[in-house]
């Protein structure tokens, strides 16, 4: 029945989605989810209809960052995204038992991700922002294959050790012909409050180096910002707490470049 209604896309839920932006990283903990959430909110603030899909099988943290406790409702075998802050949201964390560790293995991971992409009533969206699992494992490959028209925003921190993983990730997306929109450097510097001089805690130049190496634009450099940390834990993200703060404006700029 649903296929008859939405015949064009092999994954019915994605039929009426205009652009898919996949947010990726080489490693965990670099701010991929933070970027996905705040860029999605930046896109929504410009009047776009935006969905946010948390496909990070290793640690779905979107529900915590957005303060979501609800499970999605079902309709005719399709899940209805939960709405908050103007976003339509779906997360693996909303359909698994809370607090229980989930050990997803290869084929199961692929199945779960395909379900999240295809069995959700996203409706008409200008952008679907997908928070990918970090790294180059099966889950990333599954998403890459399932959303052929997606473009990738690659998040990294500045230090050299992070870059090797990012290079591997970029190679993977290139292999699957997934376009990379650009790089976003996170945790680039910190203002301690005692000096005007930014402190580059994790070194510097990583984003620029990758940008040159792969010919990809560096879309922004986000500082370590206590409001981001607070926002991440409290369920109210920075783009809601302080959209016009200096960091908020960096996210706004990125949303404008997409
Ligand atoms: P990932 O998705 O790459 O694993 P997260 O976005 O979950 O990373 O970020 C990891 C932790 O670091 C979170 O608690 C988040 O709030 C915090 N964080 C991310 N970016 C920043 C930043 N620029 N300043 C302060 N805290 C940050």
UniProtKB/TrEMBL annotation:
<comment type="similarity">
    <text>In the N-terminal section; belongs to the MIP18 family.</text>
</comment>
<keyword id="KW-0547">Nucleotide-binding</keyword>
<dbReference type="GO" id="GO:0046872">
    <property type="term" value="F:metal ion binding"/>
</dbReference>
<keyword id="KW-0378">Hydrolase</keyword>
<keyword id="KW-0067">ATP-binding</keyword>
<dbReference type="GO" id="GO:0005524">
    <property type="term" value="F:ATP binding"/>
</dbReference>
<comment type="function">
    <text>Binds and transfers iron-sulfur (Fe-S) clusters to target apoproteins. Can hydrolyze ATP.</text>
</comment>
<comment type="similarity">
    <text>Belongs to the Mrp/NBP35 ATP-binding proteins family.</text>
</comment>
<comment type="subunit">
    <text>Homodimer.</text>
</comment>
<dbReference type="GO" id="GO:0016226">
    <property type="term" value="P:iron-sulfur cluster assembly"/>
</dbReference>
<keyword id="KW-0479">Metal-binding</keyword>
<dbReference type="GO" id="GO:0140663">
    <property type="term" value="F:ATP-dependent FeS chaperone activity"/>
</dbReference>
<protein>
    <recommendedName>
        <fullName>Iron-sulfur cluster carrier protein</fullName>
    </recommendedName>
</protein>
<keyword id="KW-0411">Iron-sulfur</keyword>
<feature type="binding site">
    <location>
        <begin position="26"/>
        <end position="33"/>
    </location>
    <ligand>
        <name>ATP</name>
    </ligand>
</feature>
<dbReference type="GO" id="GO:0051539">
    <property type="term" value="F:4 iron, 4 sulfur cluster binding"/>
</dbReference>
<keyword id="KW-0408">Iron</keyword>
<dbReference type="GO" id="GO:0016887">
    <property type="term" value="F:ATP hydrolysis activity"/>
</dbReference>
């Amino acid at each position: 029945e649903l296929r008859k209604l939405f015949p064009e896309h092999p994954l019915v839920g994605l039929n009426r989605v205009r652009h898919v932006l996949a947010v990726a990283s080489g490693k965990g903990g670099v701010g991929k989810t933070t970027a996905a959430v705040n860029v999605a909110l930046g896109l929504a603030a410009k009047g776009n209809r935006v969905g946010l899909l948390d496909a990070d099988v290793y640690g779905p943290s979107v529900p915590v960052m957005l303060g979501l406790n609800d499970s999605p409702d079902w309709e005719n075998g399709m899940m209805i995204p939960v709405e908050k802050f103007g976003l339509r949201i779906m997360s693996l964390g909303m359909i698994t038992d809370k607090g229980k560790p989930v050990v997803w293995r290869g084929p199961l991971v692929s199945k779960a991700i395909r379900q999240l992409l295809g069995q959700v009533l996203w409706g008409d969206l200008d952008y679907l922002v997908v928070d990918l699992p970090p790294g180059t494992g099966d889950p990333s490959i599954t998403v890459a294959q399932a959303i052929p028209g997606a473009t990738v925003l690659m998040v990294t921190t500045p230090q050299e050790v992070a870059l090797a993983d990012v290079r591997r990730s970029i190679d993977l997306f290139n292999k699957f012909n997934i376009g990379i929109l650009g790089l976003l450097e996170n945790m680039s510097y910190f203002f301690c409050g005692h000096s005007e001089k930014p402190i580059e805690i994790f070194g510097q130049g990583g984003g620029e180096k990758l940008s040159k190496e792969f010919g990809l634009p560096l879309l922004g450099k986000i500082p370590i910002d206590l409001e981001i940390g607070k926002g991440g834990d409290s369920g109210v993200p920075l783009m809601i707490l302080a959209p016009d703060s200096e960091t908020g404006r960096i996210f706004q700029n990125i949303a404008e470049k997409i």
